[in-house]
Amino acid sequence: FGICGVRKNEGGLLFTLSYGRPIALNVDPIEKKPLFHFLVGTNSFSIATEGCNFHCDFCQNWQISQGRSNVSRDSNREYEPINIVASAIKADCRSISYTYTEPTIFFEYALDIAKIAKREKLYNIFVTNGYITKDALLTIEPYLDAANVDLKSFSDVFYRRVCGGRLSPVLDSIRLM
User: Fold this and answer.
1) For residues 52 and 65, what is the distance between their CA atoms, to the nearest angstrom?
2) DSSP state, 152?
C-alpha cells in the first residue's frame, strides 16, 4: 500500500481501492470551502473517500484521511459517478466539492464525477493540499471550476517534518492553477 492507504501495488500494477466508495457525502454551504465570491449563497455537494498523501499532525479530518478504517475496502456500498451527480442535483446543489480528504487520492473517481457534473451544468471544486502533479492538474483542468489550496507553511522543513511532503510541488501547483 502507498502512504495514502488506499492504493495498492499488485504485481507492478497500481490499483485504487476507494473508487466508488465515498466515506463522506454532505451538503455544505459553498462558503465552507471557503471560496471568495464564487456561487455565493449556494450549496455544494461535498464528497470524500479515505486517504491522504500528507500526514499532518493537525488535520481536522484525520479520522477519515488517516484513520485507515478499511471502510473503502470493506464496504459493499458503492456509488457510481452518475449517482453522485444525481444526488447533488436532487439536493439542489450548484456544485460538487471534492473535499475533507485529499481529492488527488481519489482522482480517477473525482475526474469521472466531474465530467458528468460538467455535462449537467454543475461546477466542480477541489479543496486540496496542492500536492498534485502537473499532468494530473492538466487532466482535471477542463472540468475544474475552482480550487482552494491549503498552503500549510512557506517552510520546506515544515512540509517534510509535519506533512510528510515538500513545499515546492505545492507552490508549483498554485502557480499552474
Assistant:
1) 5
2) -
pLDDT 10s digits, 36-72:
899 999 999 999 998 888 888 887 887 777 756 555 4
Cα distance between residue 7 and residue 15, in whole Å = 5
Between 44-58, 82-96, 132-146, the lowest mean confidence (pLDDT) is in: 44-58
Question: What does the chain come to in residues?
Answer: 177
CA–CA dist 34, 1 (Å, integer)? 32
- Render 66-132 in DSSP notation, one character per residue: T----HHHH------HHHHHHHHHHTT-SEEEE-SS-TTTTHHHHHHHHHHHHHTT-EEEEEE----
CA–CA dist 68, 82 (Å, integer): 26
Q: Which helix (H) or strand (E) is 169 found in, with range? A: helix 167-176
Share of residues in the chain with pLDDT > 90 (%): 72
Say what the pTM is: 0.91
Strand partners, 16: 7
158-167 core/surface letters (b: 16 or more CB in 10 A; e: else): ebeebbebeb
